[in-house]
Amino acid sequence: MCLPSTPFRETASVARVVSEPQEVSMKPLERVPVFGRPANPPRRKVAFSFDGKPHEGLEGDTLAAALLANGIDIVGRSFKLHRPRGIMGSGVEEPNALVQLESGSFDEPNVRATMMPLYPGLQAASQNAWPNACNDALGVMDRFASLLPASFYYKSMMWPNWRFYERFVRPIAGLGKAPKLPDAQKYQKRNVHGDLLVVGGGPAGLGAALAAGRAGLRVILTDDQEKFGGGLLAERFSVDDVPGVQWVEEAVALLEQMPNVQLLPRTNVSGYYENNFLVAAQRVGNHLGPNGQQGRLRERLWRIRARSVVLATGAIERPLVFANNDRPGIMLASAVRRYVNQFGVVPGSRVVIATNNDDAYRTAIDLHSVGVKAICVVDTRAKVGDELRGDLKARGISHYVGYGIRDVVGKRRVKAVELSRHLGDGNLADATMTVGCDLVAMSSGWTPTIHLFSQAGGSLEYKDALACLVPLSCSQSVRVIGAANGDFSLPECIEAGIKAGEAASEQLGAALAVRAQVPKTHAAEHESLRIEPFWFTKSAPTDKQWLDFQYDVKVSDVELAMRENFRSVEHVKRYTTGGMSVDQGKSSNFNILAVMAELSARPIIEVGTTRFRPPYQPVTLGAFAGSTVGELYAPWQTLHAASSHAAAQARFGDYGWRRPEYYPQGDEDVMAATRREVLAVRSGVGMFDGSPLGKIEVKGPDAATFLNRVYVNNLASLKAGSARYAMLTNENGVLIDDGVVVRLAEDHYLVHATSAAVGRVFLLLEEYLQCEWPDLLVHINNVTSQWANVTLSGPKARLVLQQFESDIDFSAERFPHMHFRSGTFAGVPVRILRASFTGEVTYEISVGSRYGRSLWDRIAKVGEPFGIAPYGIEALEVMRTEKGYLHVGADTDGNSNPLDIGWSKIIEKKTNDFIGRRSLQRPADKASGRLEFVGLESVDPKVPLPVGGHFVDAASPKAPAPSAGYVTSACLSPMLNKAIGLGILRNGASRLGEVVNIYAQGRMIAARVVPTAHFDPKGERLNG
């Protein structure tokens, strides 16, 4: 039935029914020809199932297109109220059609049906509903909507306590269900560098890639859809006198022939970071389904570093805000066009198009061109151009100018809409009329997709004419073009793309052989937006007007937040949950901002936007993890001389690196081998593989200033060629690492972090440099794996080194303890540090990693006449315990600070500030009763001290007894022939000589508190 286009009269008391609402019986729809595609050969049928029922789609469909074609109108339920939800969009903006895909090892929740290509045997199920989306037992929640406003749980779930409610809330919260079986799919990570990254493969992105590719730049072109083309695949446009889809194919074919261009379809660029570093997730095998992924890669995570970036990310159409605008059968106007033109699916036979701009008129024209005759266009604007009126009239399309939707008839899906005269600014007259329909296509204008630009640090400005935020400026090398920049017409998009590609080429020094010609375009004649926005319907109940369709956030929720004095957009977001979860506000954020602006009488730009945090689109955990699962989660780091250690019968242990614990000879056990190794070092010379020791280079004019702010003791006064033991604390003043810092030159330091902590220490230094002190001119580089190290320790260590040809003088006078030398050794460049963790004369010899094994073998051979012996981690731990050397993390806990280990005088001498200094001024950090670092010796020298045993006050305490600290390290000393140890004891520094009780595993052991240095307390052996 064709609706009349003439004006009508109305009264406040009588509603005129133009077309009676009828119960819509959905059934599989007839397909219409796909625009720009030959009808033959016909597309093959593809079988799939939804909620356990079999269906058929066509090759090339998305799951959403196939569901629509099969007349499936309810695909899910909203999060909070469990209202029925139908497909609303056609791409990444879709908030409703989130499905559970497959099962078992291929189970995946929260998959957008609009982004999932159909494959044979696909199994999908609705989410957040039981037993299914059409018949959801929790649909009753909608009846109690008035009792469940924004953040109701903060107010209503306080008494008696949250735990009482948790048992009821947890089972029904969430959307999809996490898989229960191990993931059977394969993932990969890759790094790539390029001159230009183009994000978005629509007309603008293709134009940029073509221009830059022809100029010889290394171009990477990405798009999150299955095929390049963007809006050209969904519109009835022509470019260079051929359908847009054919122009796209020709452009892609040209790019494929260019060896300098890399095409990445099905690739979601999810994060934009500093220095043009971007992360993208590519769906390599998703479209093949479980059967097609056997033994093949499913997803790949790209880490992209580009000299310049072009963002052609398009725009997202906004929903209109009116009462019950969330009913199944209400879709975005652009989505309707895409389903018609790209997939040949007509989502309805009686259509109302509701809009406040010119763009949605294309939907009416495209529907009419495929045979839909019952079309009604409802425009809230008071005036519409004569050309638009004429186009609709010529096609017999009903046209109501100056009217808006007051309400929707139908609960499970739309049956009709009630219209009222629009008085401007969202106000409607009282009189209504009813128009029957089975589809509403709505449009409230477009929001540029600027998430990546925002992540890059870009600023935005508000364009009144377009009613949207557009990019303004950014410090990174990035250009935003096309619809993402507010240029919505096809000619503007293609021209902007070509200019951006040429500009990037010139900026990066590539020669342009010839300027590209902008192709001729032919589109619908009414491409301009000419929008007159209103942000919600003021004459209708605001508790029925949806903003966030996924999380059930309504206008009334924002009103409540404003009444409760929430003004920050970030606060309102969290209070209402608008724009959160999987959707991330793609279809709702701007409407929420605009409603906030209107309610608070502020400009939209002043309200601001919420922070766009990566990933903008969901990325699977598998893609982030890549192959780092199972044993590969933390891959073995292998010593450069691993084969030599194995030949020496080393017993290896896992320390992040696979390191020798001891080197047994004959039938020696660990105790015997460790004792022999310790005595070999103390009496002669031993060799130890110290390659895992952390090595972080800090270089730049401000290197001394930077390290002095980071470390507890003074490193600015350190002279070149000297080394200093240093402590590192966090902001709470808690010890987190220690090590020896070497000053290589005035502007160059080498920080030796502990082998277990070097990764996190490096990240901490980077964080402070980038986030707290970006003005300092410093570069940091973790070079741990670039250097192999052999440590010689013992009274004969110097004699062994002097057997090698070197330009370094190893004499005690020329090379004293805690000094550093660089030069050549055995014919290769070398760095040698004289520092000790054994208490003996020690030289740490570092060479390039490729020389690691040969250095070990040469020293072992040359040292044979001196009785050299390799020693492992166990012997090193015994020797450092004998010397009382601190091991941060073993001899400290999460509260230990430098004062607890006797560093108060060092801190007092340092005049400069450092991380944690303020915290160390707190009374609690200086109070008595803290656990302090002490030495221990067993009263019975033959009874070992138990590591982890707690100090208790009485010899026979009653359980539970308070702990006064515990034993942190212990051994049977080969040099002292008695049981010794280290620990942290309450007020330990003042208890020297006192006998304390240690409780462990039901036994009580007596120990004496002594200074930490058990062996060679004056350090005389170090300076031999």
TrEMBL record:
Residues 933-1016 form the Aminomethyltransferase C-terminal domain. InterPro entries: 2Fe-2S-bd_N, FAD/NAD-bd_sf, FAD/NAD-binding_dom, GcvT/YgfZ/DmdA, GcvT/YgfZ_C, GcvT_C, GCVT_N, Sarcosine_oxidase_asu. It comes from the Bacteria. One of its GO terms (biological process) is tetrahydrofolate metabolic process. One of its GO terms (molecular function) is sarcosine oxidase activity. Residues 195-458 form the FAD/NAD(P)-binding domain. The keyword Oxidoreductase applies. Keywords: Oxidoreductase. Residues 543-626 form the SoxA A3 domain. It holds the Pfam family GCV_T_C. Residues 644-910 form the GCVT N-terminal domain. NCBIfam families: soxA (TIGR01372). Belongs to the GcvT family. This is Sarcosine oxidase subunit alpha family protein.
